[in-house]
Prior knowledge:
Helix content is 29%, strand content 28%. α2 runs antiparallel to α6 and α2 crosses α13. The two termini are 18 Å apart. The strands form 8 sheets. Strands 3, 7, 8, 9, 10, 11, 12, 20 and 23 form a 9-stranded mixed beta sheet that branches. A hairpin with a 2-residue loop joins β24 and β25 (466-467). It is elongated, with a radius of gyration of 27 Å. By secondary structure, it is an alpha+beta fold. Residues 209, 412, 415 line the site of one magnesium ion. One magnesium ion binds at residues 209, 412, 415.
Amino acid sequence: MRTSQYILATLKETPSDAEVVSHQLMLRAGMIRKLASGLYTWLPSGLKVLRNVETIVREEMEKAGAIEMLMPVIQPADLWEESGRWEQFGPELLRITDRHNRPFALGPTHEEVITDFVRKEISSYKQLPLTLYQVQTKVRDEVRPRFGVMRAREFTMKDAYSFHLDDACLEKTYQVMHQAYCNIFERLGLDYRPVIADTGSIGGSVSHEFHVLAESGEDAIAFSTESDYAANIEKAEALAPSTERAEPSKELNTFDTPNAKTIAELAEQHGVKAHKGVKTLIVYGAENEDGERGLVALIVRGDHELNELKAEKLPLVDSPLEMAKEEDIVAAIGAKPGSLGPVGLDMPVIVDHSAAVMSDFVAGANKDGVHYSGINWGRDVAEFTTADIRNVVEGDPSPCGQGTLQIKRGIEVGHIFQLGSKYSEAMNAGVLGESGKNQVMTMGCYGIGVSRIVAAAIEQNHDKFGIKWPQALAPFDIAIVPMNMHKSHRIPDIAEKFYADLKAAGLEVLFDDRKERPGVMFNDMELVGVPFTLVIGERNLDNNQVELKNRRTGEKVMLDIDSAVAEIT
Ligand code: ATP
Ligand code: MG
Ligand code: MG
Ligand code: MG
């Protein structure tokens, strides 16, 4: 590829609306552009990386015995009615109506469609087990799309579904898929962990998530300090033996909110009722644009059927919140960013020690040493710091019985489930068993966030100059940078020959044939993250040499022109 005939589309400035480094670098390196909230166009170099991920995913799926197919994005509502998820899925399911007034959904996942397909096509136990997969566009009307392609409204997922006569067979395939996922993340060169997970809105019994470890990750994962136990925080918390949570560090003598001494009183004062399954009540002090101060209370409910943290509104909140995140509250009440919490407002933040919420809270607060006034359910007013919260979260004994829990942040890049008969039963998907009787199938499903992986990989592979692609993901294998080519007699021919020879050797080559200053070209190649750059300059040519730079190590080696291609390939 010649840069002069390509859209490199690199940007010097960091776009101001991009919060995390992967989003910034994907924009700056010319990989993506935003069309609208959560909707992105993939530019040529970004698409190459996306395709590289897809290739590895496909290869490992095929090795695991899965067979590729492709289902429609648009799905008829009646299938979702059958499974019960038309109601359950909530507003994340983007619904449309056709010209005949028939309801459809834009597929966020494909359990219904595949179950419908299999119940029609597969009739005998002899055709089982069967694993089918697709790499396809998914649509989810995320409440808060953010971080670029990391949480998009339209994204690429690999989703696989397995069908079995019994749970023992499902369990076997599940293990094969688990291994295939490990192979995929291994080959992608990512630092990842499989963790025990909740089954959420997809349903089923056994489930694992695969997380790429990164500080910017939206999820908290709990690790045992003494075994290889790892679980997502909700699961770890649900399983952890209940213990006395650590006490906040300091008692406060004053509590500035009138007439409220305990959270129970506060709750009553604000009309908060305890609901079944309530996990946590958080009350934020806040100031809105008009300078009005008040309390915003959120009931955060771990509703496992819906897999959504639901927040209930109180007076200052005039729209129902889907997620109990600080930014959402800011948006909902029109508060000044940064005005949430008691700091400088004489307002309490009340946090019940639920690890899942606390760790999100810590991540949101993002700073140690910040003071929160607070009160525990039924306890006295107290003051504590981010570090205290972290201690509370991290000191739970591990459910595995060994060591205590340590919290890290992760990006969920894959999720696998043993669904059992949840969908096959609801949708009446059975086969004739050996005995000649109809038997409901058991199912597994296995998702990978293909496009999210691209962003997650950048979170783990970058420096201040740009992206440092692992070889398996890089959009190009090597860049050729001829220095001041237009001023030289020798360089153009030599550069052209390298371009032809390296391509012939099977490499993806980016030939920077622009009439740019060498500094501009080097900066672009580092930003884009090309693993190797071959620098062709007058001075080295006098010694019949070219320079090869390694993007990851920064190492530079001199190569003889005649043997360079052989040494590179
Ligand atoms: P999350 O917890 O991040 O919302 P999820 O649990 O809702 O993800 P799954 O239903 O498990 O997602 O889907 C399988 C995979 O699809 C996820 O592990 C993730 O990698 C990817 N994915 C989910 N939602 C998005 C999104 N909005 N944008 C990009 N990738 C996504
Ligand atoms: Mg989700
Ligand atoms: Mg999830
Ligand atoms: Mg998931």
